[in-house]
Design a protein that fits this description.
Strand order of the largest sheet: 1-10-7-6-5-4-3-2
Shape: globular
Number of strands: 10
CATH topology: TIM Barrel
Helix content: 40-55%
CATH superfamily: Homocysteine-binding-like domain
Length: 326
């Protein structure tokens, strides 16, 4: 049973929590090669210092929470690279340790503490489809039962919980069934809080087709779920999705959409100018729609997180100035 929600001090002091931005796509932007099935988890092997530096840069940009580079990491995934269980365990723990080390480095500088609370580290629990690396994370059509999904997620969740994160980020979940499996599995680790974040295909449905608000209502019944919302979804869908979630739960809502850019499949590149170029104004709208945890996903970077924090801070300041005096 969760008795100490580490998000509460942030919400009490600020009214919101700033999450970090994209990991794999920003690492790629910095020159990393992520062109295999392990995606960003490959860099746990090849370039862990790049991951640590990016975590630090997100804290410096204003992130209150770093999400570990374990989204694509799993025992079966590492086994495909002929890594044994011990090495896979080491790498998954390393994903959390890198975020923790970056947080501690950031916090060791007194100037970085001004007006800030000590940031948190969330261990990423990616969906089953991320392991498949075939796009099914945006469809959810796995053909697995709830029990089979629990059995697949269990070893990784146990390993990441043992690494000592502040909470888990169960993210880019495309279906109600997988969310239910994760919530049931969380009960095996009763002291670990988590958020559940869905990937959505439009303004009302998760990628597999279930109603987003129905999915939110189901997972929000868990006392271990401390926030619920949407990620890796085009920004244009966020406001109506938040409105639907707000009708069915009073738990903190979160959103960390992708940039909304189009993908040119023939040229295998992102379409320049097709996405959000300034996350400041949208962040204010998402906050007004009920989001309390806000950040970015694919194709976002530290500059986007800086704009989100600045926008939220300015909005909070305006509200304080305009609030009537007694």
């Amino acid at each position: 049973m969760i008795t100490n929600n580490l998000l509460t001090p942030f919400l009490a002091a600020q009214g919101w929590v700033v999450l970090d931005g994209g990991l794999a796509t920003e690492l790629e932007n910095r020159g990393a090669n992520i062109s295999d099935a392990l995606w960003s988890a490959r860099l746990l092997l090849d370039a862990p210092q790049m991951i640590r530096q990016l975590h630090y840069d997100y804290f410096a940009a204003g992130a209150d929470v770093a999400i570990s580079a374990s989204y694509q990491a799993s025992f079966p995934g590492f086994a495909r690279r002929r890594l044994d269980e011990n090495e896979a365990t080491r790498l998954m723990r390393l994903s959390v340790e890198l975020a923790q080390a970056a947080r501690d480095d950031f916090w060791s500088t007194p100037a970085n503490r001004a007006g800030r609370l000590r940031p948190l580290v969330a261990a990423s629990i990616g969906c089953y489809g991320a392991f498949l690396a075939d796009g099914s994370e945006y469809r959810g059509d796995y053909g697995l039962s709830k029990r089979e999904l629990m059995d697949w997620h269990r070893p990784r969740m146990a390993t990441l919980v043992a690494s000592g994160p502040d909470l888990l980020a169960c993210e880019t979940i495309p279906s109600q069934l997988e969310a239910e499996a994760l919530v049931a599995l969380l009960a095996e680790f009763p002291d670990m809080p988590a958020w559940i974040s869905f990937s959505c295909r439009d303004e009302s449905q998760v990628c597999h087709g279930e109603d987003f608000a129905d999915c939110v209502a189901v997972v929000a019944t868990s006392p271990q779920v401390v926030a619920v919302g949407v990620n890796c979804t085009p920004p244009r869908f966020v406001e109506p999705l938040l409105a639907g979630a707000r009708r069915v739960t009073n738990k903190p809502l979160l959103c960390y959409p992708n940039s909304g850019e189009g993908w040119d499949a023939s040229s295998r590149c992102w379409v320049t100018g097709s996405g959000v170029t300034d996350f400041g104004p949208p962040a204010r709208l998402w906050r007004e729609a009920g989001a309390q945890l806000l950040g970015g996903c694919c194709r976002t970077g530290p500059d986007d997180i800086r704009r989100i924090r600045q926008s939220l801070s300015e909005s909070s300041q305006r509200r304080r100035v305009s609030a009537p005096t007694q």
